[in-house]
Design a protein that fits this description.
Mean pLDDT: 92
CATH architecture of the largest domain: 3-Layer(aba) Sandwich
Number of strands: 20
Strand order of the largest sheet: 6-3-7-8-9-10-11-15-14-13-12
CATH class of the largest domain: Alpha Beta
Structural class: alpha/beta
Shape: globular
Largest sheet: 11 strands, mixed
Helix content: 25-40%
Number of helices: 18
Radius of gyration: 23 Å
Length: 500
Amino acid sequence: MGIKATLIKPLARRIVRQTAEMAADAPACQTGIFQQLLRKGALTRFGKDHQLDRIRTYEDFCQAVPVADYERLKPYFEAVKSGEPDVMWPGKPLYLAKTSGTTSGTKYIPITRDSLPNHFNTARNALFNYAHYAGDFSFFDGKMIFFSGSPELEYQHDIAVGRLSGIVNHQVPSWLQKNKLPSYDINCIGDWETKLSAIVGESRTKDLRLIGGIPPWVQMYYERLLEITGKNTVAEVFPNYRVYVHGGVNYAPYQSKLQELVGRAIHEVETYPASEGFIAFQYRPDEPALLLNADSGIFFEFIPVEAFHQDNPQRFQLSQVETGVQYAVVINSNAGLWGYSIGDTVEFTSTNPYLLRVTGRIKHFISAFGEHVIAKEVDQAILEAMVNHPAQVTEFTVAPQVSPPEGGAPYHEWFIEFADPPANPDAFARELDAALQKQNIYYKDLRQGNILRELVIRSMQINSFRNYMKSIGKLGEQNKVPRLTNDRKMADALATYCIN
């Protein structure tokens, strides 16, 4: 074991003890955070509007602070973005994390001085815990690649604005700086293909031991690395490669391919980060479920999925949750988020400690590659495409094609039943792809970086969707065809109805 790993080991033991204490008494941690948030929140415009200073119990809080999404809180977010202080949290945020997935386009999520440790210390704690329980600290002595967006930031009213993954680059601790790849200049390259080749060139001769990034990016890195080096497996290039850290998208569709490319067993660590906060992490190699981050500036609430769309759904504190129930996640945090639905659904596998798995999203969506495309965006894109390429659409749905049978890069697959098809289907597809890029910045990044290729349209036979819904017993006015699915179940069934 090298010097850095030797020095980290005692610090990791302390972090492991703190994590164990949090896990053993998570509800008490949540109670303390709840009180802290109310005290500081009462000093803000949001706090005055919702009389946070008068709240004494959780029941009071539920009455005063409604469950909200970005749209409902948008006037507050816009005031924060304009540079107004003391809106949702005392002072101004240090950063605004740009993210997609709202009906109005780009979201700007505050990251405050108080909320920074949630993002960065939690990532550290996840690695320290995992290394401790795996009995392997050796990866701290080698190089580490963290795939991210550009670290270049723009400034609005003295607030730095950028993607969360780019913001993270500005907070890497000094003890990790010499280990981290890619270099700043390479990380700023805008074109993904160029950036990928540069990362391979920079890293191929290094003693690489850890990689962090969403699966589609890492798969492309593996494949480019093997193409350039002529090796058969990643393990041949990096014999000391030990750990892959992933999160953000469903890992299951990628796992077998990534393991095949690596060529031998390595540690795979799942995390649950979001722009709104670092929610949970896998802390032991023998436990695939994720430990809720219960003592890091976030007060969690949970709403049973079947009740979420009710006018005033019952909300549960952590101490009230049960295993085996699908919950929508609502957070209140020292970033100034109040009653904020992050859109995810989880299921607890244990309440001692509080372990969970991510089960999906409240709304239909596609995020197989981290793009967070929602129904409004595909609806608007198809309307825009029909302006220059007139057509009549009876019904459609969209699904990700992660592993195209014909080979090549993945894509979004559109199953469209036309009552009157466009005169030029290829031009229509190009227009539709461009329109979706306008709607969703993450999809645009993936397309311009050639991580995704242009969408593919499958024209459907007349009555295809009607016959499909009938075949699954859901033909009727109360049942609607989902605009988007994040898996292939529906898409594969629809394939039998395709014309092309």
